[in-house]
Amino acid sequence: MECKEIEKFFIEIIEGKNISDYKEIKNHIEKCRKCKNNFEEIEKILKLAKKIEVPQFSESFWQSQKEKLFVEKRPYRIHFKLILSYIASLVVIISISFFFFSKKLNKSKENSSLLVFEENILPSEEQILKLIDYMNEEDITCILNVLMKE
Amino acid sequence: MSDNKLNFDDCYKEFSQKLYGVAFRMVGNHEDALDIVQGSFLKAYKNWDKFQGNSKISTWLYRIVMNLSYDLLRRRNKIKKVEFIENYKIRNNDFGGERTIEEELLLKKIKEEIEKLTPKQKTIFILRTYEELSYQEIANVIHSRVGTVKATYFQIIQKLRKNLKEKGEIKNGMQRD
Known about the structure:
The complex is a heterodimer of chains A (150) and B (177). Chain A is an all-alpha fold. Chain A has 2 domains: 47 residues, no CATH class; 73 residues, no CATH class. Helix content of chain A is 77%, strand content 0%. The radius of gyration of chain A is 46 Å and the shape is rod-shaped. The termini of chain A are far apart. With 177 residues, chain B is mainly α. Chain B folds into 2 domains: 95 residues, Orthogonal Bundle (Rna Polymerase Sigma Factor, Chain: A), CATH 1.10.1740.10; 78 residues, Orthogonal Bundle (Arc Repressor Mutant, subunit A). At the A-B interface, helix 4 and helix 5 of A face helix 1, helix 2, helix 5 and helix 8 of B.
């Protein structure tokens, strides 16, 4: 047999398969240096490649994975509903706070005008500037009148 | 619990670790391999009634795992390949037994060369070398012919040997040993 023909049996010999011309092939490998080298190299590669391991997991790990298999889709729905309820409650909270805040703002506006005019307290320039944002035209005219009198 | 459900449970118990091993070797990391196993079983469960029983159930499951692995490799190829090889190397260092430095180096090179194989070549190599499937079973998994599988496996081994030799990782008569 030619070297090329012999090569085809290398893997089977390494795998320990029964081949009809085993003796003849083995004799050739022993005598032919080229074939011997090739055979040894392939044997070494396959032997080492088999040593490449993968992580091993226990039965309990796979049991838990199997349980996850059928519930995996559910959390998405729950999550989606939860997110929706969070958004809804956030909207409610924001609108309630906005309502109270605007009411309070209006009240403080009224109070500030009353303070100035009912108790006749003269505000400083700084206070006027601060209050000016919350005042209407009428308030501003009143203050200006008071200041003019002074 | 129906019969199918019972069979599925037994099937999961019997093949989960095996399929994980194949998926891990195909894609090179735990997260993706686990996703593939879970995805494969989910797919198998949905099509449980459609399984004709013409082939072994393991063949059917291997086929699903391979298809999902191919999809992932295809997606990954579009993104990046280098990171994956590095990840694979590091992860596998954790599982080494007692080896000489020479062996460890050669093993790393072999891993790199295996990574360079095409998905189909990788499938044949994994199913033959690690799962010890017959050429006929591999042919059934990848819808190919026995002769083609056998020839491809031989070519893969020769390719690995040639590439390692060209890089000087192995020399005539394994002189590095």
